[in-house]
Amino acid sequence: MKLVTVAAVAVLLVGLIGGVAFGKPAENRRGNSLKNGDRIVGGVVAEVSLQLDAVILKQHFCGGSIIHPNWILTAAHCFEEQLFPIPVEFIRVVVGESHFQNNEFTEQTVVPAEYISHEGFALTSPKHTFDQVAKINDFVAPIALAPPGVQPSTTPGDCVATGWGSWALWGAPNNTLQQVHIDFFPDDECSAAWGGFFVPQQNICAGTPEGWESVCQGDSGGPLKCKSADDGTEYLFGVTSWGSDQECGYPGDPAVWTEVAHFIDWINDKTGLTFPLM
């Protein structure tokens, strides 16, 4: 019985069964993928863990989002090391976790059977799948994907990012799941900040006008959940991708997420499901 599948686009789909990952930005003076060793900046301890914590050799390296009992969406660059794909047998996925080093008896560890990379990301690994599925309960639950055409609310604080990443660039990971409420920025503001490195058709960005509240390294692959502009329903709008290399949360450098809605067709094709699930 399948449990998890991991897939990567410039985001990665991880199979629980699944994960979606989006590709890295082009090299630039500021763009920096938010992987390996940093955490939420300016946030607080999250009350409940609904986020996947992916572990390699028992060390935290990225986040993700449960989108179905069998599938997890994360970032493709989380599954490479020095341009080589990480062997699936080295990957452990932990869900229902809030404190990384404490046993709270809510955690579930899943061994992936496969992961799938989006064709737009240069990860050249074979397809792998998981052999188990996540048990949905009070501590583990999927989040709905934002349907195409639905826009995030622009009300300040209506988006929330979570993760175990660092408080500062190149810092150590956080042991406790953190969350930070931030603002969704319109495409024109994101393009003004990042120029041609920001692709409106595939990216969204968020932060605060003052800065110092954002995601950081180690938060890659994790969720950007926002209330919708029309009725306030909370959806997964983005997969944490990249941000400033000056400092996490640096004023004027909003962090960038891969836009989930842009990859709905790809997710449906790879999972055999029909998202968004109603």
From TrEMBL:
Q: Name one GO biological process term.
A: proteolysis
Does the record bear Signal in its keywords?
A: yes
Report what the protein is called.
Peptidase S1 domain-containing protein
Q: What's the source species for this entry?
A: Notodromas monacha
Q: Which Pfam families match?
A: Trypsin
Q: A Gene Ontology molecular-function term? A: serine-type endopeptidase activity
Provide the alphabetized UniProt keywords: Disulfide bond, Signal
Q: Would the keyword Iron be found if you checked this record's keyword annotation?
A: no
Family stated for the protein in its record: Belongs to the peptidase S1 family. CLIP subfamily.
